[in-house]
Amino acid sequence: MRPLLALALALLAAPVAADTDLRDRAGTLGLVPCEMSALSCTTLTLPLDHRANDPTRTIDITFALSFAAVESRGILFFVVGGPGGSGLALAESYLAALDESLTDHLDIVFVDQRGTGSSHGLTCPIAQGRLDTAPAGLDDPVALLASARGYVTDCIAEMGADHLLAYVNSDQAIRDTEAFRQAIGAPRVWLYGESYGTQFVQAYATAFPGAVRGVILDGVVDLSLDAEGFYASYTRTSEILLERTFAACAQDAACRADMPGAAGRVYDDLAARLRRGPAMVPMTGADGSLILRPLTIGMLETNAFFALYSPAGRAQFLRVLAAAGRGNLGPMLQLGYANMSIDSETGDGIPDPGWFGAAYFAITCSDYDSGPGLPEARAKAILAEARAFAPNAPRLLRSYYLERLVCAYWPHQGPENRPAPFAGGDYPTLVLNGDADPITPISMAYAVLDSARNSFGIFKQGGPHVILGWGFRCPDNSVRDLLLDGTLPAAREQHCARDFLEGYTPLTLTAPDQMADPTSVARAVETELGQLIALGNWDGLSSLTLGCDHGGTLTARPHIAGTSYRFSDCRLWPALALSGTGFERSLGDGNDGLMLTLEVSGRHSGRIEYTHRHEYAAWSLSGTWEGAPAGLTRLAP
Questions:
Q1: Beta 593-602 vs 576-585: how paired, if at all?
Q2: How does pLDDT run across 359-377, given as a tens digit for each residue?
């Protein structure tokens, strides 16, 4: 490997401002405002099959361009994860998360990879919802194979895009992006990929090394692993991280107090119950009516797996698990709906402009090979591997086999042989990963670090999947310095740390004496407004009415100054009903905060007015309670 000093000198020898001025370069491409952001978009008509000589079959690929706000020092191609994420839909949120100096001094390019986006996005939310909620256990292989086979048949019929399916693999998409680079004059560019995007970027840099100024891989896929190796790696890691999550609860006083026993035992008891059959959970509809919805083992395992992606996700899952252990399965059901993009009112899948679930399979299944033989033979071989692997994954085994079974039936398969390990190049490669990453385990990042020339690693203890853009100096400052000034990391490998579990919020009003205090009730309402899963996933653009866990409804409406709330016999806890209004002001000044005017009935009654001013971190309360004037309880030593 080239010595660090020599590489640093080579980088500094090149003009910092080379390959810039994307605005001028793209001026001839016919820029228009993007539909889903304030960025500029351009659409290229490209061959449907780059490897064929057929000018009559084409596809339109759209790129979104964020021009440097001050002065450009380079062009960055930003490849989002998935596969199935829409670069155009996600661009604004990613730009907002970056260090401001990067958007000031870099031109940044996003793409709606073929299979995603409004023009040729592949999605089948109805079939997806059925697959995600199916039991899918190895104890019933006939039903399991029927579920995977049925998903493929139903999804392809639902999306009606058979003509596209053979041409959405990563190789075709890479050539789309290279065609864009050629269209703007073939500058050397920085490549950033997150999660699946690291797979894309490694393959791009290998195919077109002359295009590359540098590579940043965040949440790294090891391209040399076959499908079995990839799924085995992340399933083993997920099992370890789930056990770490349960152990973290035991170390957190609030989580430990909320959990009716050891967290792992609470999970295992619930899983055993759901493996016997779905639990029918009472749920209040938006119209206030009571309906029953099934909570399945698939939903529980999906919730557990998704929780591992971030410190906050782990905390949220533990809170929901604690509620389930105390008999309230509603939050676990709502978390499942949110994770699986299912409408809680209808039970159907919800289309998402930023995510294309069918594209996930269309790309993954045509990038990886499911094994030799016909689909049934491939599927049965995967089942046999899953039975042998089962001792490694007592809680999350479906992560190992369910997606692979879908791919076994998918009509287009990937190449039989895997690529060689990523070799890097004369440019720098920065490898970013966390040791608590469930889907791209840190072992994959180390494999790439060891194989790639001129590579550097920054690894975060306890952090999330994908570690750039969370507002922490590590790794954000190192990425900034590399992209803007060509400054290499101070050492070939560096570590930093973040808490494994962050922001556990205790369950509210779990003791009778807490319900007797009006301030505790008001504070608990404020807490639950921040914890309601459906409210947390609300887009804030139109009115939302949701059922409260134990009856009644809560309506949230957007307001020019924030959000207004209306409570209608809303029972966030079985023994108390709330009616009235609330307003959360969020203009970013000293008057921001929450105001509640609530009629409380049930075990206790009263009318309370509560105000929490965020600027001062102070609250007040007035009204009546149990027929007497109400106010703050005076503090005592």
A1: antiparallel
A2: 999 999 999 999 999 999 9
Task: Measure the CA–CA gap between 475 and 468, rounded to whole angstroms.
Answer: 6
| pLDDT tens for each residue of 22-36 | 998 898 899 999 998
Secondary structure, 3-state, 397-457:
CHHHHHHHHHHHHCCCCCCCCCCCCCCEEEEEEEEEEECCCCCCCHHHHHHHHHHCEEEEE
Please report which helix (H) or strand (E) contains residue 530, including its range.
Answer: helix 518-531
Q: Which amino acid is at 532?
A: L
Which tokens sit at 15? 């003009």
Question: Are the beta carbons of 339 and 357 closer than 8 angstroms?
Answer: no
CB neighbours of residue 76 within 10 Å: 23
Residues constituting the chain: 637
pTM of the model: 0.94
pLDDT in tens, 186-196: 999 999 999 99
Task: For 599-621, give the DSSP string.
Answer: EEEESS-EEEEEEEETTTTEEEE
What residue ranges define each of the domains in the chain, with the CATH number in brackets? Answer: 4-13+69-121+171-224+420-497 (3.40.50.1820), 243-340 (no CATH), 512-630 (no CATH)
Q: State the average pLDDT over residues 228-256.
A: 98
Nearest residue to 360 (alpha-carbon basis) of 574, 63, 82, 1 = 82
Contact criterion met (CB below 8 Å) for 29 and 42: yes
Name every residue whose Cβ is closer than 8 Å to that of residue 404 and which is 6 or more positions away in sequence: 227, 228, 231, 370, 382
pLDDT at 3 over 80: no
554 strand-pairing partners? 546, 567
The whole-angstrom separation of Cα 355 and Cα 88 is 11
Residues 375-394: tens digit of each pLDDT: 999 999 999 999 999 999 99
Contact indicator for 439, 234 with CB cutoff of 8 Å: yes
CB-hemisphere CA count at 13 Å for 537? 16
The H-assigned helical ranges of 308-433 are 311-325, 330-340, 357-367, 375-389, 398-409
Residue 596 predicted with pLDDT over 50: yes
Q: Mean pLDDT across the chain, nearest whole number? A: 94
